Amino acid sequence: MNAIVLLSFFFAVCGLFSSIHSRNFTSRPAVVNIGAIFSFETTIGRVAKIAIEEAVKDVNANSSILRGSKLVVSMHSSNCSGFTGMVEVVVFFTALRFMETDAVAIIGPQSSVVAHIISQVVNELRVPLLSFAATDPTLDSLQFPFFVRTTRSDLYQMAAIAEIVDYYGWKQVIAIFIDDDNGRNGILALSDKLAERRSKISYKVGIPPDSGVTRGDIMDILVKVALMEPRVVVLHVNPKLGFSIFSVAKYLGMMSNGYVWIATDWLSSYLDSSSPLPSETMNIMQGVLALRQYTPDSDRKRSFSSRWSNLTGGSLGLNSYGLYAYDSVWLVAHAIDAFFEQGGVISFSNDSRLRSEGGDLHLDAMSIFDDGLLLLKNVLRSDLVGLTGPLKFDSDRSLILPAYDVINVIGTGYRQIGYWSNYSGLSTVPPETFYMRPPNRSSANQQLYSVIWPGETVLKPRGWVFPNNGKQLRIGVPIRVSFKEFVTKVQGTDMFKGFCIDVFTAAVSLLPYAVPYQFIPFGNGKENPSYTELVNLITTGFFDAVVGDIAIVTNRTKIVDYTQPFVASGLVVVAPFRKLNSGAWAFLLPFSPLMWIVTACFFIGVGTVVWILEHRINDEFRGPPKRQIITILWFSLSTLFFAHSKSELYFCQDTLFSVKLISLFCLAGENTVSTLGRFVLIIWLFVVLIINSSYTASLTSILTVQQLFSPISGIDSLKESDEPIGYQVGSFAEYYLSQELGISKSRLVPLGSPEAYARALELGPKKGGVAAVVDELPYVELFLSTQCTFRIVGQEFTKSGWGFAFPRDSPLAIDMSTAILALSENGDLQRIHDKWLMHSGCSSDSTELESDRLQLKSFSGLFLICGLACFLALFIYFLQIIRQLYSAPTVEAASPLQGSSRSGRLHRLLSLMDEKEDQSRQKNKRRKVERSLSENDGDAKSGSNTKRKGIEMTSGSNINPIS
Question: What's the rounded Cα separation, in Å, for the pair 520 and 524?
């Protein structure tokens, strides 16, 4: 009996202990509490409140989820702005109440500012926080691991805006934003996305988030915006502030033609929830572009939209944030269901770090969700389809496949002009169309429908204008003291003239808008100024542009933008030349030294090959060694002269080409007997004929036509020498020669005028002058038009041009480039060139000096054919010798002192090659040749006798024959 009492007491104590330390033993409690915190007074909050309530009803009505448990949501309103109210009311009271009701998850907040604070709390309490409206890109998973964004981050929205800006070709925008965490971080993301596309925010202004901003404050901001060049304005604010800005902009005339207004999704959310708006409200934002979070069309979405109309009676529209709030509840419900399936238990425990020693905060009432991390993992692993589309997170904890609608406010509503998705960019078809295809972000695939812009125009705004503040562009112009045909200042005035000035003014006249400008001279007028310093003044803001003969070089393109080149340019070498007189050794000039060497080697080589082929069967190629060497040399050289004489013998026949070939065959038959020898000789005689003809033509040209010669052949020979080099003062040639080519600055001599060029070149390096001058091609062409004793030598060793310089990303540079192309196409650019730069040139040709010598590469094909013919003939010849070697009867060794079989075979091979061919075979060949020759002679004699007899009979028939 005592044992029973003790056992009962033990179980009672254990039960009491368990009830104290644990609030829940079952894995599926009857009630599961979640919290919701957002502002009930805002447009998004009013829609979200209804959506969350309906989602909870639908979850509890569905028996396949949270089986046996009921989802209960406790919603609390918070202030979206105000630091004190946010910290005291939202964090310390609202969050405490959530924790006291053992909420396992929190939905909200809608404000990114509040989300930053609440995220700090839920990190400590291990309660997942699912926000359907906090879009701040800096709310990341590294800093706030229990924060889960169930909507789209502003990072994607800003990427969409940047792509729209790039699609229309705009380069600068103005950003107006609300000056809180969400506004600042959103505009920072926009700046990064624009930079990726070589665009930028030229001006940004933050407006305080409190309600103390007056209409006068907004007017002051927009007046500053109106005085700036960009006309593309991005508005990232709340609805109340946004409509105030539109109203003031309409009053200032900034909603007219030429302006572009792009609003973030605050405008589309308001339009979806509050349409139809009053006509006066719609009138102030006609032509505005806006983004809206894209939610694919589906039966569930259409059904819920119809249900929504019944719930609200049409007084409150459904926006995308309401859809995300609805899906957030279902996301939590599925995660809790999976949490229970995995054995998760809803239990909370106190944390000593949250205890307080008195005070009104009551931190000791807050407890930590023991299995909060498991529930968070189930939230992130979710894979279901909601009203907004797929609810699945990527590795960055962002919902997959972000996309936006692009809408155009027009009339009493708006018109959708396309879509943007992170997968395919801009398109006129829904984004899911591209998800089954490979991603293609090429510019050709980016499309949007036409837009009705502010001012009710369909013409795309240029995106920038010259500000209407009376300011003129300060354009720097160099004061040149040489080559004044390009640009020069008119004496006694502030005006400039010249080729470059005429091109600039002609291009400006083609622009579709007026460009107020004034020329500002740069330089002391005594020497040409440094063009690098002139271009650098653009980066400091001293000049708005630079006009003149400005070369487009690498180090300058890093700091400024250039227009399309209006003159092709590049560095060339100018050097003096002298007449090349024909002397005693002029006969060697037609061929280069290498050509002479290769030709001599082939003469000897072909003679040797023919000697090898003819040695066994031709008596002329046999005899003592001394005689054979002389024969080889004589035969090689004779082909040169005999080929020429034979060709001349038949020159008077019908066709020159065919008779020359006949002469070659005749010559080949005179000295050679073997077929292989004749084959090699025919090929060689053809090569000799070509070489002989080329030599004759080149020598004739050298002896009859005046030749020009310069010791400098180009920049390479000039670089290898140690002679002084001249360059134009102020030109980039000094930098290129010293920095790029590594030429010592001590060798570089500055020259200030064409007269200085001529004087230095005439003196030469030995008399204090220069060996050559390196300058840009337009200057050199103008210089050589009056100086006939100098020439360009070598090739142009840099390729560049002249263009007008503007600040980086200046839209005027693009428009001026288009105008310059138009000048080139209509011929005006050439006419301006002829007006200033056409002078009476020298009678002699001013092209590059080139040697008239024939190079080896011109005959490499002939030598290759001849070499292959020799190799083939020798190969066939040695095959015949080897066949005779093995077919001949074996001769026994006469004595034991004879070498091995291998050396004996080699000895036999050499003997066979040296011995004369069998006399009987040779006689048979000779008889055949003599027979053919006699037949030819007989035919010739018979023909002549027949002719002679005919003559005798006609002239003297009375003469008696002699007996």
Answer: 13
How far apart are the C-alpha atoms of 420 and 164, rounded to whole Å? Answer: 9
The reported pLDDT for the residue numbered 266 is 95
Cα 777 to Cα 284: distance, rounded to the nearest angstrom: 58
As a whole number, mean pLDDT of residues 165-177 equals: 94
Contact 52, 322 (CB under 8 A): no
The single residue listed with the structure tokens 């109440």 is: 97
Residue-wise pLDDT tens digits, 631-651: 777 776 676 665 544 444 433
pLDDT tens per residue across span 331-361:
999 999 999 999 889 888 876 665 554 445 4
- The pLDDT confidence band at residue 101, using thresholds 50, 70 and 90, is low
Question: Residue 163: pLDDT above 50?
Answer: yes
Q: What share of the chain is helix, strand, coil (3-state, %, to 5)?
A: 50, 15, 35
User: Which tens digit of pLDDT belongs to each residue from 230-285?
Assistant: 999 999 999 999 999 999 999 999 999 999 999 999 999 999 998 889 999 999 99
| Residues facing 576 on adjacent strands | 790
Specify whether the CB–CB gap between 815 and 566 falls below 8 A: no
Nearest of 735, 721, 733 to residue 757 by alpha carbon: 733
User: Inter-axis angle of helices 181-196 and 154-167, to 10 degrees?
Assistant: 40
The token duo for 460 is 């795309």
Find out whether the peptide bond into 807 is cis, omega within 30 degrees of 0. Answer: no
Query: How many other C-beta atoms are found inside a 10 Å radius of the C-beta of residue 527?
Result: 16
473: tokens are: 């562009």
Residue 364 has pLDDT above 60, yes or no: no
Name, in order, each residue with C-beta under 8 angstroms of 599's C-beta and a sequence gap of 6 or more. Answer: 591, 691
Go through 320-335 and write b for each residue having 16 or more CB atoms within 10 A of its CB, e for each that does not: bbbbbbbbbbbbbbbb
3-class state of residue 792 by DSSP: strand
CA 425 – CA 344 distance, rounded (Å): 42
Backbone torsions φ then ψ of 923, nearest 5 degrees: -65, -40
- Site of tokens 């995995």: 342
Record the pTM.
Answer: 0.66
- The count of other CB atoms within 10 Å of the CB of residue 542 is 13
| C-alpha–C-alpha distance, residues 655 and 648, integer Å | 12
What distance in Å separates the CA atoms of residue 809 and residue 711, rounded to the nearest whole number?
47
Helix axes 828-837, 777-784, angle to 10 degrees: 50
Phi/psi at 954 (nearest 5 deg)?
-80, -30
What's the CA gap between 49 and 468, in Å, rounded? 48
Angle formed at CA 830 by CA 839 and CA 756, multiple of 5 degrees = 35
Q: Are 104 and 302 in contact (CB under 8 A)?
A: no
Sign of CA dihedral 528, 529, 530, 534: negative
- Helix ranges, 540-623 (H): 554-557, 593-614
Residue 722 contacts residue 765 (beta carbons within 8 Å): no
DSSP state of 737: I
Provide CB contacts within 8 A for 174, sequence distance 6+: 201, 202, 203, 204, 205, 225, 228, 230, 232, 233, 234
- SS (HEC) of 38-103: ECCCCHHHHHHHHHHHHHHHHHHHCCCCCCCCEEEEEEEECCCCCHHHHHHHHHHHHHHHHHHCCC
**How far apart, in Å, are the Cα atoms of 32 and each of 10, 65, 76, 330, 563?**
32, 12, 17, 13, 68
Beta bridge partners of 391: 384
